[in-house]
């Protein structure tokens, strides 16, 4: 079943088609407004990764993690998330505003009609009927309407990119939360498993005390160790429930079902190898937040032209036509009408229009700074996430070795204690190290999967023009 939000998103590509700098309106004099140079030297290559052709398609990166539940939850969020529904409504609003602004190119025509019947003794038998029509048309000689249309087009583009970027963010939030829930479920299973071993250790210590082989110190140490492990279980259960409930909100449903999906321990997804990805300039073009900031800048620049146009003459053409008669029989025998033209010019407004121009310029400066900030932020995201993914993979390998050593050590310590060849302190230390190593391994695997999600997000993954029915334009078609 397709929701209203998903239907609205399927129209968004009409907004995203073509570079923002080539905004035109077929058949009308809409100005072409290109953003200025950002003033930022975009590097040709990445500093922290080898330059190579892109090794994977990041549009649906969550499917590459090979976790059916994670895929199900992400795609449910993209279909039902209520923040996306709000953004889709804002896109529809921007589309309607553009249609209203374009109507300024066309004449306005209104009609009127009147019927009057006198009730006096000598009144005519037929009513007096009159019909009329008025038309007016503003000539856009100085670009006020065209600048308004250009601003509305850029607003519509910004709304479309905002929707795409929100989709990118929501997909990442659900994927990261699901990975976190997977890690918590594994740590919870580890804590419960460890608690079973510690119950056995406590029983063995009691038997040895009863046999007079050791002091009661072993029992108290075993009790303390067990209590500390048991105390972590409610906290982990609470964290798992909170994470699952947050995912439920993101996918637009009440809590409950998601927790049942995620409470059973399952493997943390292993991300595919990333051999390389697109050059910085191409990544910036794919990032909807950067493109949206560029569109907002174009809209701000167009509004400077709108404000300036108020200083120039406004020319209007108009006309009227009408007829009247007693009764309908000869209503159109005599038709009267006229045409007129008018021109108006601002002479004095106390500086209000100049202030509006200055305000529009200041808004454009702010939009330019926001665009620059989005570029720097996007580059930072990719560089940091690339390093994080590489280093987290190294940590997984190191912790695997540590876990193997801790597991062997715990097995030896347990067997030696049961045989009376070692004291309880050695067993306590070994099992604490094993628990820490198991949790660290799970954390490293979760960090690696999360780093993959953040990297693919930084590369502009999580949305695709294929979501929409129209193909991406190269900017030559309007």
Spell out the key features of this protein.
single chain; 11 helices; about 475 residues; Outer membrane efflux proteins (OEP); alpha+beta; disordered N terminus; 4-stranded antiparallel β-sheet
In the CATH hierarchy, the third-tier topology of the domain at 20-104 and 144-286 and 372-467 is known as Outer membrane efflux proteins (OEP)
The backbone outline, from C-alpha atoms, is: elongated
Measured as a percent range, the helix fraction is: 55-70%
Find the structural class using helix and strand composition: alpha+beta
Q: How would you describe the oligomerization state of the chains in this entry? A: single chain
The share of residues in extended strands comes to 5-15%
- The CATH architecture of the domain at 20-104 and 144-286 and 372-467 would be Up-down Bundle
**Helix segment tally:** 11
Please give the largest β-sheet.
4 strands, antiparallel
CATH class of the domain at 20-104 and 144-286 and 372-467: Mainly Alpha
Describe the fold and architecture.
The protein has a domain at 20-104 and 144-286 and 372-467: Outer membrane efflux proteins (OEP), CATH 1.20.1600. The protein has eleven helices and four strands; from the N terminus they run ααααββαααααββαα. A hairpin with an 8-residue loop joins strand 3 (314-326) and strand 4 (335-344). The protein has a four-stranded antiparallel beta sheet with strand order 1-2-3-4, with no helix packed on it. It is an alpha+beta fold and 478 residues long. Mean pLDDT is 84; it is low at 1-27 and 468-478.
């Amino acid at each position: 079943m397709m929701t209203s939000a998903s239907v609205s998103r399927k129209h968004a590509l009409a907004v995203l088609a073509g570079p923002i700098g080539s905004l035109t309106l077929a058949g009308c004099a809409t100005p072409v407004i290109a953003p200025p140079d950002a003033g930022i030297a975009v590097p040709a290559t990445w500093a922290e990764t080898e330059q190579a052709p892109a090794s994977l398609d990041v549009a649906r990166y969550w499917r590459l993690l090979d976790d059916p539940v994670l895929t199900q939850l992400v795609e449910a969020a993209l279909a039902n998330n209520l923040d996306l529904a709000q953004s889709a409504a804002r896109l529809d609003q921007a589309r309607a505003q553009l249609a209203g602004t374009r109507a300024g190119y066309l004449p306005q025509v209104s009609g009127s009609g009147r019927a009057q019947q006198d009730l006096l003794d000598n009144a005519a038998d037929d009513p007096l009927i009159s019909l009329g029509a008025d038309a007016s048309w503003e000539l856009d000689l100085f670009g006020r309407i065209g600048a308004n249309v250009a601003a509305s087009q850029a607003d519509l583009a910004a709304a479309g990119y905002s929707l795409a970027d929100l989709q990118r963010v929501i997909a990442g939030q659900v994927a990261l939360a699901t990975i976190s829930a997977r890690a918590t479920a594994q740590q919870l299973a580890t804590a419960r498993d460890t608690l079973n071993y510690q119950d056995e250790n406590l029983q063995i210590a009691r038997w040895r005390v009863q046999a007079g082989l050791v002091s009661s110190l072993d029992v108290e140490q075993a009790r303390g160790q067990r209590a500390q492990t048991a105390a972590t279980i409610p906290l982990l259960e609470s964290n798992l429930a909170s994470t699952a409930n947050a995912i439920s909100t993101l996918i637009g449903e009440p809590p409950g079902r998601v927790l049942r999906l995620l409470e059973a321990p399952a493997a943390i997804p292993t991300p595919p190898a990333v051999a390389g990805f697109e050059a910085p300039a191409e990544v910036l073009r794919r990032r909807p937040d950067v493109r949206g900031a560029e569109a907002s800048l174009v809209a701000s620049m167009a509004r400077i032209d709108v404000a300036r146009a108020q200083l120039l003459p406004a020319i209007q053409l108009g006309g009227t036509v009408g007829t009247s008669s007693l009764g309908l029989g000869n209503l159109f025998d005599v038709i009267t009408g006229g045409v007129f033209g008018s021109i108006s010019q601002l002479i004095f407004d106390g500086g209000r229009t100049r202030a509006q121009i200055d305000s529009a310029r200041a808004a454009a400066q702010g939009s330019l700074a926001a665009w620059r900030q989005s570029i720097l932020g996007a580059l930072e995201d990719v560089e940091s996430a690339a390093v994080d993914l590489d280093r987290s993979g190294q940590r997984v390998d190191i912790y695997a070795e540590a876990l193997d050593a801790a597991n062997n050590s715990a097995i030896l310590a347990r067997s030696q204690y049961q045989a009376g060849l070692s004291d309880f302190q050695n067993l306590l230390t070994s099992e604490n190290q094993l628990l820490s190593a198991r949790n660290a391994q799970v954390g490293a695997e979760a960090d690696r999967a999360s780093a993959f999600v953040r990297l693919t997000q930084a590369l502009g993954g999580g949305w695709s023009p294929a979501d929409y029915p129209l193909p991406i334009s190269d900017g030559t078609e309007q």
